[in-house]
Description:
The protein has 14 helices and no strands. It has helices spanning 3-6, 21-77, 80-93, 100-113, 132-146, 150-163, 169-189, 199-209, 217-235, 240-253, 265-281, 289-292, 295-306, 310-323.
Amino acid sequence: MSTSETQPNPLSDTQPGKTKPGAKGFWIALLVLAAALLLGGFGGYGMGINDRVSAQSAQKDAILSEQFALAQQDVEAGRYAVANQRLNYILEQNSSYPGAAELLTKVLVQQAITPTAVPTATPTITPTADLREQETIFGEAQQQVANKDWSAALGSLDSLRKADPAYKVVQVDGMYYTALRNRGIDQIMGIGAYTSTNLEGGIYDLTVAERFAPLDGYAAGVREGASQFLTAASFFGIDWVQSLQYFGEVNRLYPNLRDASGMTASQYYYQSLLNYGDILAAEGQGKSLSDRCQALDYWGSAQSIAGLDETYGAKFNRLYNQCYPPTATPDPALLITPEVPTPEPTASGG
Length: 350
């Protein structure tokens, strides 16, 4: 028996053998190809989804755009209920759709002021309303406005509006404005039916009148003057600086405006000038004479309005002499008159 037959074969079928180099490369290439195909499939699937989403989004935008255009046409034609439905649909799909919220607001306003027609199945004959009571009250209010009896006119207008809120709305609103505007001015200025002023009441009337129509320049100015007067009065006797500032402005525009006490803005300003001058003229607290001399300016301004009484006249003169002391005048008896020598006559030769 040969040696080769008695030795175990290292490549026997029962022993694990080594893979050939060519087979290993084949399997690697096959795996790479499978992975590439798999990734390509996923990529194509993702691109397909993106394209479908983009198409859906474009279709949705087109639908919303069409609905918005139709809503605009509905608004122009007065079909507010239909426009309301379209716009609500748009905002449900896209709450920030450009212009939709603003147009819906406009539609809601129009729906609020536009009466909705209620169809009736069978025509009915409505009896003519008896407007004699309203006409009577309206005529009385017209006459009261013509007579400048503002309070009576307002009472009649209140009764008319309570009896029939829809009766001649525009004309009644205009009469309300006229009566409130003029009564407000009369109360502030203390004229017409008002012998004394009522600044707060006048301001209130003008403010209510403004709900019916904008105030004219004069009425608005009178209301502003009354408001400033009340503000200035709140500082009078408490803070002379603020009182002086506010009453100075009221005095410039409405010097004769007065409160229920009868004092005018000019009189309040005058008193504020005097009292603030007293504060400046007071000695102490480290004040220098130049600081105290400023009181003369305020007392002088008061003097230009109504003059100074005896007390303030003395205060003014005393401080004035301290601030501007008179120059001393020399006593003529103490003056020495120099003697002027008389020139001697000169001899003239012959």
